[in-house]
Design a protein that fits this description.
Elements (H helix, E strand, L loop, with lengths): L1 H10 L6 H4 L3 H22 L1 H10 L20 H6 L13 E7 L7 E6 H18 L6 E4 L7 H13 L2 E3 L6 H11 L3 E4 L1 H13 L11 E5 L5 H11 L2 E8 L4 E7 L6 E3 L4 E6 L13 E7 L10 E7 L1 E2 L11 E2 L4 E2 L4 E3 L2 E3 L1 H8 L5 E12 L2 E10 L1 H5 L2 H19 L4 E5 L14 E3 L7
Parallel strand pairs: 3-4, 3-5, 5-6, 6-7, 18-21, 19-20
Antiparallel strand pairs: 1-2, 7-8, 8-9, 9-14, 10-11, 11-12, 12-15, 13-14, 16-17, 18-19
Helix pairs in contact: 3-4, 6-7, 8-9, 9-10
Bound molecules: 5'-O-[hydroxy(phenylacetyl)phosphoryl]adenosine.
């Protein structure tokens, strides 16, 4: 009985870590400055790469006097991690490393993410904050359908869910029918996966005549790829749940860098662990707060791989504002796309997620799409392949052309670009089990 009432009290707690999540900004920034000084010294003394880079930039750890001095530090890019593969950026001897994750990316060697025991513990805490803010509680039955393995999603969520005390079901991803059977049989109340895999599960469930909305499932926490607000609503409707968000990257330890709260209006960053900046992706100069640009992170408490000013390539903007949830952590907008994902069509910058939002406004098509980029003479041509709803596709070529024209007009009207649209049949687009592949670039490499 005593145990029960303690659990009930804990469940009603609003924050996982009230002290930091609601810390006044001035106090938080003081904490950040202290940690920044420590981290720069730690990296300078222990990682030859940073020792050299800081010497070249003419800045010593003692030269960091205020948060503005961050701009004096050199950037770190993905290639620096590749060049120092596998453990060249590790600040501790390997005997102090207790876990290594890795991310494959599209080319060459993977990048590695080593953790000390302390790093793992902090990561777990950051994940618990994320999950708690989404409404996950100890009595949840948590189906974790992120890929388990080198990818940080599976184990990162596992740790956070275990710390909260949920009944974790580590299904991993891939066996979609089994996901649905277990979801039903175990009475899962929370689901964790990429948004595109959530949609794959919803679609397969409908084919199997399982109505997820009738099941006990009530929350999902999705992330690891860009997804539009329209996609969020689609998942919420199809599953009858609240779809919350997780953000992170292997280079900064995985998910747990940022999360949204019940207000669903921006992603709070765990600012006591990650110092965020936005820079112009071309000039690399910091932009004023509220302007869009490339997101940069400096790790403030990581021991094994404390990256300084890491260029994420993610495009977003930061906002410091009062949130109805009471958290004081800075908020970032949903990731717009990646600077390396950005297409330039007829001189207009295009992110796949913008097209996704527009497609979701057309009732005749499914939220399953692919963007193919080709060269037509000197011009880039964008072909949007989107699945038609079954009755639309089956109605024949004329109907398909009519819907294609409607989609084309919608995109032209909102983005000002002319695209070609192909209404394709059901299952034409490969179903995602992890991160969806949205862009197929068929342009010759030297012309991209
Ligand atoms: O995707 C970590 C993660 C796992 C985050 C599970 C959330 C949930 P990487 O594989 O290294 O790590 O990929 C990192 O994925 O730079 C973004 O481009 C993208 N990304 C991650 N979360 C989001 C999100 C994990 N919520 C890269 N929205 C990042 C948009 C996201 N993009």
């Amino acid at each position: 009985m005593a145990t029960q009432s303690r659990a009930a009290k804990e469940d009603s707690r609003k924050y996982w870590d009230e002290k930091f999540e609601t810390m006044p900004t001035a106090e938080l920034q003081k904490f950040q400055l202290r940690k920044l000084k420590e981290t720069v010294a730690w990296a300078y003394e222990r990682i030859p790469f940073y020792h050299r880079k800081l010497d070249e930039a003419g800045i010593k750890p003692g030269g960091i006097k205020s948060l503005d001095d961050l701009a004096k530090l050199p950037f770190t890019v993905k290639n620096d991690l590749r060049d120092n593969y596998p453990f060249g950026l590790c600040a501790v001897p390997l005997r102090e490393v207790v876990r290594v994750h890795a991310s494959s990316g599209t080319t060459g060697k993977p990048i590695t993410g080593p953790y000390t025991a302390e790093d793992l513990d902090q990561w777990t805490e950051c994940m618990a904050r994320n999950l708690w803010a989404a409404g996950v509680r100890p009595d949840d039955i948590a189906q974790n359908a992120y890929g388990h393995g080198l990818f940080t999603g599976g184990l990162g969520f596992h740790q956070g869910l275990s710390r909260i005390g949920c009944a974790v079901v580590p299904t991993s991803s891939g066996l979609t029918e089994r996901e649905i059977t277990l979801m039903k049989d175990f009475g899962a109340t929370a689901l964790f996966s990429t948004p595109s895999y959530a949609l794959t599960i919803a679609e397969r469930a409908a084919e199997l005549k399982v109505d997820i909305r009738e099941l006990p499932l009530r929350i999902g926490v999705f992330g690891a790829e860009p997804w539009s607000t329209a996609m969020r609503q689609e998942i919420e409707e199809r599953m009858g749940i609240k779809a919350q968000e997780a953000y992170g990257l292997t280079e900064q330890g995985g998910p747990g860098v940022g999360f949204d709260c019940i207000a669903q209006d921006g992603i709070h960053l765990n600012e006591d662990h990650f110092l965020a900046e936005i820079v112009d992706p071309v000039t690399l100069e910091p932009v004023p707060l509220g302007e869009k640009g490339e997101l940069i992170f400096t790790a403030l408490q990581r021991r094994a791989m404390p990256l300084l000013r890491y260029r994420t390539k993610d495009i977003t903007r930061l906002r410091r504002e009062k949130c109805p949830c009471g958290r004081t952590f800075i908020k970032m907008d949903k990731i717009f796309g990646r600077s390396d994902d950005m297409l330039i069509i007829s001189g207009v910058n295009v992110f796949p997620s913008q097209i996704e939002s527009l497609l979701l406004e057309i009732p005749e098509v499914e939220p399953q799409y692919r963007l193919v980029v080709r060269k037509k003479g000197y011009l880039d041509q964008l072909i949007v392949q989107v699945e038609g709803k079954k009755d639309i596709y089956d109605a024949g070529p004329e109907k398909r052309l009519e819907v294609a024209a409607k989609v084309m007009g919608h995109i032209k009207g909102h983005m000002g670009i002319g695209v070609e649209v192909e209404i394709v049949e059901a299952k034409f687009i490969n179903r995602s089990e992890g991160k969806a592949l949205r862009v197929v670039d068929e342009r010759p490499k030297q012309l991209r």
